Predict the structure.
Amino acid sequence: MKKTVRWYLNNQTWSDDVASGDYRQWVETNYVQREQTISD
């Protein structure tokens, strides 16, 4: 558990991006849209 907490504390930017929705947008851009392009 200590390692997990330390990781989140050391990666605050990532945590903030996830909380703000930026990560969801990144996934949408880099995975969902790419899969749709490949399928077309």
